């Protein structure tokens, strides 16, 4: 990574709204060809972070470096805007212009970008080229906005919830396009609610919570961070006996079976089988990123480690 | 692409987009013409040759104010609400291209309204003016859209897309009435006549009436100064609001 050019560097970014600290000393850096996924619940500050980086809002502290240039205030040079592509969450185009017209307009903004026709192709909307924006489906609108974000063949792309409102097929095809961007050496910042998206695309996942990054790593590292696995089975053992097993953090019962959250799944299983040799339907599962993420951002996250609570 | 191309395309697509909004185009073009036909031509006092010419000036002012205020206020408020303006601000499009495009659209509408009203006046109202008067009046009216464009811009930058149309009407219609665009200003109650000079539309209409020698006799420079000052104040406010909007403070 270190040999690749750093395209985005944020240091100690602070943003306050009416006395409330929304970004509280955020650091991040992103290299060419890297996909960074920012996860976080609503209100975590994801959109605020992107807006501050892009100069849509002023920051109250910290430094922002875009494509090697240090940024002051909210002004972003034309040369920089030529090389950045953005897809914001609330992005609606003029409802009265057609797909082809929007692409024509956006392609003329960039000195060395895609032609209008190529943009229509990138959006995969050749068959809707003459449809007005207002008549497109939610997914088609997102595809057009994605294509427009690439209009200038950018080096750095910001995608705020890009697959919102897309069906599974459209989402997969957009993922493919994001992978292509990565291969072309484009640096991508992606925020999403779809954790599968982060697992599929991200080189690095950063979890934003109450204005701070509380975790950062590859999707696999982030999963490991949560340190526990799920042990599921049907057993005759009592709640007390199950909670007393080594490594068990939590217990829940549903439909005759039980689920144990264990920090040491192997030892838990060994002890379980020793105490009850009639255990059936035993499964040990990796925690999905979604659960890992929920655990990290849950208000009780700091306390759940080590305490044995009964969750029925 | 040259930056000239950006200005051209931005203006062209702004015009197309507005043109495809019947709810804007029909009232903007039809109201001034219909009003003028009724109050300027059909209900002309018997034997009056000047009434149609007087009303031509005032209804033309009324006509060009509308599209300038509505186009800026409503479309900028909705572009802001929908995030379209955000996307454009992040793109390498100069803000001036966006604003000039809106101005160009307002001027195209102003031109159409002027052409229609002048035709109605000449054909049905028997208004006879020198060629220099027609041209002078048209140029004055086109230039006269500028202060109203700034009123629209100020409203578009501050109001929500839902509130914008209502607030524009609340300013546009009373201002037109109070500055004597519907009825000659001399027919208004005297305290309203005294107040008329605060409205930019009063000064624009007086300048227009000067072209046909029917104004109230104040000096041209006074009208120009007040219009210029109003425009400068509005422009300053727009810059302040825009700075706040873009976070530059």
| Count of DSSP-assigned helices of chain A | 12
- How would a textbook summarize the main sheet of chain A? 6 strands, mixed
Indicate the low-confidence ranges of chain B by residue numbers.
none
Provide the β-strand percentage band of chain B: under 5%
| Percentage of residues assigned to helices of chain B | over 70%
Helix/strand-derived category of chain A reads alpha/beta
* Spatial strand arrangement across the major sheet of chain A: 6-7-8-3-9-10
What does this structure look like?
The complex is a heterodimer of chains A (312) and B (249). Chain A is α/β, with parallel strands linked by helices. Chain A contains twelve helices and 15 strands. Chain A is elongated, with a radius of gyration of 23 Å. Chain A starts with 5 loop residues before the first strand and ends with a strand. Residues 300-312 of chain A have low confidence and may be disordered. Chain B is mostly helical and 249 residues long. In chain B, 77% of the residues lie in helices and 0% in strands. Chain B is built from eleven helices and no strands. Chain B is globular. The two termini of chain B are 32 Å apart. The chains are: A alpha/beta (312), B mainly alpha (249). Chain A binds chain B through residues 54-58, 73-76, 78, 81-82, 84, 86, 88-94, 96-97, 101, 104-111, 132, 145, 148, 151-152, and chain B through 1, 5-6, 9-10, 13, 16-18, 20-21, 79, 82-84, 86-87, 89-94, 246-249.
Topology:
The complex is a heterodimer of chains A (312) and B (249).
Chain A: E1 6-17, E2 20-31, E3 35-39, H1 46-54, E4 61-66, E5 69-71, H2 78-82, E6 84-87, H3 99-109, H4 116-122, H5 138-149, E7 156-160, H6 168-183, E8 187-191, H7 195-201, E9 204-209, E10 212-217, H8 219-225, E11 229-234, H9 239-243, E12 248-254, E13 257-262, H10 265-275, E14 280-285, H11 289-297, H12 301-304, E15 309-310
Parallel strand pairs in A: 3-8, 3-9, 6-7, 7-8, 12-15
Antiparallel strand pairs in A: 1-2, 1-4, 4-5, 9-10, 11-13, 11-14, 12-13
Helix pairs in contact in A: 3-4
Chain B: H1 3-19, H2 22-42, H3 51-82, H4 84-90, H5 95-123, H6 131-143, H7 145-158, H8 164-178, H9 190-195, H10 200-211, H11 220-245
Helix pairs in contact in B: 1-5, 2-3, 2-5, 3-5, 3-7, 3-8, 3-10, 5-6, 6-10, 7-11, 10-11
């Amino acid at each position: 990574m270190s040999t690749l050019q750093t395209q985005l560097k944020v240091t100690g970014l602070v943003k306050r709204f009416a006395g409330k600290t929304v970004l509280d000393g955020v650091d991040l850096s992103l290299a060419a060809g890297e996909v960074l996924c920012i996860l976080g619940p609503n209100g975590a500050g994801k959109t605020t972070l992107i807006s501050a980086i892009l100069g849509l809002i002023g920051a109250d502290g910290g430094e922002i470096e875009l494509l090697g240039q240090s940024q002051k205030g909210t002004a972003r040079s034309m040369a920089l805007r030529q090389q950045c592509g953005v897809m914001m969450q609330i992005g609606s185009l003029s409802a009265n212009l057609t797909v082809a017209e929007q692409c024509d307009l956006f392609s003329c903004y960039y000195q060395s970008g895609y032609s209008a026709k190529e943009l229509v192709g990138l959006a995969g909307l050749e068959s809707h080229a003459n449809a007005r924006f207002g008549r497109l489906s939610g997914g088609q609108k997102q595809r057009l906005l994605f294509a427009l974000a690439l209009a200038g063949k950018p080096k750095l792309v910001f995608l705020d919830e890009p697959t919102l409102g897309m069906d599974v097929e459209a989402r997969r095809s957009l993922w493919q396009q994001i992978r292509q961007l990565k291969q072309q050496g484009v640096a991508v910042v992606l925020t999403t609610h779809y954790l599968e998206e982060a697992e599929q695309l991200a080189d690095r996942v950063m979890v934003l919570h109450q204005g701070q990054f509380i975790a950062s790593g590859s999707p696999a590292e982030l999963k490991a961070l949560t340190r526990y696995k799920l042990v599921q089975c049907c057993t005759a053992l009592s709640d007390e006996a199950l909670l007393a097993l080594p490594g068990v953090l939590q217990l829940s019962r549903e439909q005759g079976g039980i689920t144990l959250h264990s920090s040491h799944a192997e030892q838990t299983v060994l002890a379980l089988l020793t105490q009850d040799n009639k255990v059936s339907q035993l499964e040990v599962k990796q925690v999905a990123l979604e659960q890992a993420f929920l655990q990290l951002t849950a208000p009780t996250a700091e306390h759940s480690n080590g305490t044995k609570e009964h969750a029925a | 692409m040259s930056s000239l191309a950006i200005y051209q395309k931005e203006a062209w697509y702004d015009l197309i987009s507005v043109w495809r909004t019947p709810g804007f185009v029909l009232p903007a073009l039809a109201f001034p013409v219909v009003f003028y036909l009724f109050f300027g031509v059909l209900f002309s006092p018997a034997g009056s040759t000047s009434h149609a010419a007087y009303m031509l000036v005032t209804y033309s002012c009324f006509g060009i104010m509308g599209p300038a205020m509505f186009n800026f206020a409503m479309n900028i408020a909705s572009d802001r609400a929908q995030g379209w303006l955000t996307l454009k601000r992040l793109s390498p499009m100069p803000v001036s291209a966006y604003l000039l495009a809106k101005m160009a659209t307002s001027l195209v509408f102003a031109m159409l309204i002027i052409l229609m009203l002048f035709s109605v006046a000449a054909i049905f109202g028997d208004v006879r003016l020198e060629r220099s008067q027609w041209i002078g009046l048209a140029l004055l009216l086109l230039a006269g859209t500028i202060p109203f464009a700034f009123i629209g811009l100020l409203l578009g930058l501050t109001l929500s897309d839902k509130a914008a149309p209502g607030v524009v009407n609340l300013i546009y219609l009373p201002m037109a009435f109070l500055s004597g665009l519907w009825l000659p200003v001399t027919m208004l109650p005297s305290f309203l006549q005294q107040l008329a000079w605060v409205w930019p539309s009063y000064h624009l209409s007086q300048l227009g009436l000067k072209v046909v020698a029917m104004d109230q006799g104040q000096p041209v420079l006074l009208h120009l100064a007040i219009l210029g000052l109003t425009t400068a104040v509005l422009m300053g406010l727009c810059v302040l609001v825009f700075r706040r909007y873009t976070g530059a403070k």
